[in-house]
Amino acid sequence: MSVQLQSRPEAFRQYALRRAAELKQMVTPYLEQTNTIPTGFSHSEMYEARRAKILNYFDATLEDWDNWHWQMTHRISDPHVLSLLLPLTAKQRVEIERVGKTFRWAVSPYYLSLMDDNDPFDPIRLQGLPTHAELFDDFGEEDPMGEGITSPAPSITRRYPDRLIINVTNMCAMYCRHCQRRRNIGETDTHSPRAQLKEALEYIRANPEIRDVLVTGGDALLLSDLTLDWLLGELHAIPHVEIKRLGTRAPVTLPMRITDELCTVLAKYPPIYINTQFNHPKEVTQDAKNAADKLIGAGVVLGNQAVLLKGINHQPHVMKKLNQELLKIRVRPYYIFHAKNVKGTRHFVPRIQDGIAVMEQLRGHTSGLAVPTYIINAPKGGGKTPISPQYLVSLDNNKAVLRTWEGKYIEYETP
Ligand SMILES: *Cc1c(COP(=O)(O)O)cnc(C)c1O
Fold first, then answer.
1. 209-235 mean pLDDT
2. Which residue's CA lies nearest to atom 11 of ligand 1?
3. Site to substitute for ligand 1 among 147, 156, 165, most atoms within 8 A of C-beta
4. Same domain, yes or no: 31 and 83
């Protein structure tokens, strides 16, 4: 008896050691590759050098740089200015000029500072600067989500039983090349008129089943502090509105927007959830972390809605790194959206197989906190549809067959 008790733990330990060695082996390819995936932190010196170059061009100070109004009024949208700040081949410059006549582009000096001088396939450049591919898209639609047909009141999109979107602006700090709402990005930047927002609020007041209101655009944080204070205050005063959410890319493209004054406003109206859109680990910078820290200090809960983009983050290791970097700055990965068939963005649309491969290499392989839900937006306003690798192989009345994260098949009895 006592011999057994002593020898068995030893056998268990041996088994566990063998298994641990196997698990270590499993993560090795990722660890070897991960060093070659740049992050905002690993590139901080390069970013500082680029910032100095841009400030020098505008004859501006670090104080200017940290002022989001300065960033907005100094957005780069002219190919000539761009060519002075980022090496472009003659061909690239012509391309940007040409595409810019059809699709608007602009980048904040901050986002420009994250772009690689030498790599035309840099994931930041690909998101911010137009390429010829945008003109060769006979596949995409203007409004694949049918937002036009799901608006019961001005500025509102309602597609679900208990929650809805208010569109407050068409402005953004930069115009993502993969933007799903590029049809709204006209020549002029406009916030929704106050009268229209009042009608939207009236609709919410009149429909008590609405418990979750998502303020987005455009970029919700491009509203002034004063307007946000008013709008959030109005929503806060509606008894059935349990939570408020803001959709914004400011932590990624304009982190200096997260000021103390803004945080004072946000702290007044809990609970507030902010979902942002980091798409590549290079975007997770010290500035982004500072912005996240401030928002969290104001009681805001942060989530990320990445878009799966071919050539930018469709590689499983890149997406895994992104989600791990986000957890480090306390931004919880929430969704990965399959890129939609929006006109002019076809070159970014990956295969669904790519998305499934990404998810397959997240679940089990890394923290569950780093595993978001992969979503395809069903056309014509059909709604968010979760897509996942298959883990349930079969199910009948008393037995299921499961496939584990490692690909082992296991029979599971059900009573
Ligand atoms: C995405 C979306 C929401 C929010 O959906 P969640 O799954 O709750 O994050 C709400 N309304 C509309 C119209 C949406 O597109």
1. 97
2. 164
3. 165
4. no
384 Cβ below 6 A of ligand 1: yes
Whole-angstrom distance, CA of residue 138 vs CA of residue 255: 36
Out of 73, 103, 135, a domain closes at 135
Q: What pLDDT sits at residue 355? A: 98
CB 160 less than 6 A from any atom of ligand 1:
yes
pLDDT tens digits, 124-166: 999 999 999 999 877 777 777 677 778 999 999 999 999 999 9
Question: Is there a single domain that holds both residue 154 and residue 251?
Answer: yes
The answer to whether residue 363 sits within a structural domain is yes
Q: What is the Å distance from ligand 1's center to 38 Cα?
A: 31
Residues 219 and 316 occupy one common structural domain: yes
Inside any domain, residue 142: no
Question: Tell me: the pLDDT tens digits for 171-217?
Answer: 999 999 999 888 777 667 889 999 999 999 999 999 999 999 999 99
- pTM as predicted: 0.96
Pairing of strands 163-167, 212-216: parallel
Which two structure tokens, joined as six digits, stand for 255? 């982190």
CA of 178 to the centre of ligand 1 (A): 19
Residue 157 in contact with ligand 1 by CB distance below 6 A:
yes
Question: What are the pLDDT digits (tens) for 22-52?
Answer: 999 999 999 999 989 999 999 999 999 999 9
Mean pLDDT of 244-270: 98
214 Cβ inside 6 Å of ligand 1: yes
Task: Of 70-84, 173-187, 311-325, give the lowest mean pLDDT range.
Answer: 173-187
- Sheet arrangement for strand 301-308: 156-157, 163-167, 212-216, 243-247, 272-276, 301-308, 332-338, 373-378, 383-387
Per the structure, the complete domain to which residue 120 belongs is given by 44-135
Sheet holding 409-413, edge to edge: 392-395, 399-403, 409-413
Same domain membership, residue 293 and residue 261 = yes
Cβ burial, residue 367 (10 Å; 0-12/13-18/19+)? exposed
Total domain count for the chain?
A: 3
